[in-house]
């Protein structure tokens, strides 16, 4: 009678595909983090080779995750949007409303820098990709994210009660978007935005 062969100890473990997926996700996240840092770094800093090197992966891994430059730029920008939206709730639960809003606006300033870097990275011939982002939709989602902060601040008296969340997003964007400013001027502009939200 033929013996039934037992699985070899060297057989592939059922957990191997899961580990591969985990490694792939880690690589993708590292690439997005490196790309976001490059977008915020200013003109001339968006090099695919440098991003792969910063993420600790080969250029082939970068292209497997993001087959084009535009795909990487778009994914990095969207990741920045999602992080900014998620931070609003976290900040409200860890800081007083006015301080939470100050911290969120500082992160919004970083988002503005990333958006400038995105437009630069796509260059003039590729701006159609940038225009595909739903600017109005993103602004609406940001307003929804910070509305609880404004409401909490109104309840405790640290923020004006009649202020609309969409107005705050537009005010901050209007202060920061038109031109590139340094860190000191950004801080002054954000302080002016916050001062305008102080109850009379």
From TrEMBL:
DNA-binding region: 47-66
Region (Disordered): 1-26
Biased amino acid composition, Low complexity: 7-16
Entry-linked InterPro entries: Homeodomain-like_sf, HTH-type_TetR-like_transc_reg, HTH_TetR, Tet_transcr_reg_TetR-rel_C_sf, TetR_SbtR-like_C
Key words of the record: DNA-binding, Transcription, Transcription regulation
Xref: PROSITE patterns: HTH_TETR_2
Superkingdom field: Bacteria
Domain HTH tetR-type: 24-84
Name of protein: TetR/AcrR family transcriptional regulator
